[in-house]
Amino acid sequence: MAGTKKLGKQTFAFTAPPVILASGTMVGPMEGEGPLGEYFHMVASDGLLGEQSWEKAEMALLKSAFTIALDNAGLQPTDIDLMLAGDLLNQIISANYTARDMAIPFLGLYGACSTMAESMALGAILVDGGFANRVLQGASSHYNTAERQYRGPAEYGSQRALTAQWTVTGAGASVICAPELVAQSGITTPLPRITHATVGKVVDLGVKDAADMGSAMAPAVADTLVTHFQDTGRNPDYYDLIVTGDLANVGSAMLTTLTRQATYDLGNRHVDCGSLIYDPSQDAHSGGSGCGCSASVVGSYILQEMANGKFKKVLFVGSGALMSPIASQQGESIPGIGHAVVLEI
Amino acid sequence: MAGTKKLGKQTFAFTAPPVILASGTMVGPMEGEGPLGEYFHMVASDGLLGEQSWEKAEMALLKSAFTIALDNAGLQPTDIDLMLAGDLLNQIISANYTARDMAIPFLGLYGACSTMAESMALGAILVDGGFANRVLQGASSHYNTAERQYRGPAEYGSQRALTAQWTVTGAGASVICAPELVAQSGITTPLPRITHATVGKVVDLGVKDAADMGSAMAPAVADTLVTHFQDTGRNPDYYDLIVTGDLANVGSAMLTTLTRQATYDLGNRHVDCGSLIYDPSQDAHSGGSGCGCSASVVGSYILQEMANGKFKKVLFVGSGALMSPIASQQGESIPGIGHAVVLEI
Question: Which of B96, B128, B335 sits opposite A97 (nearest CB)?
Answer without folding.
Answer: B335
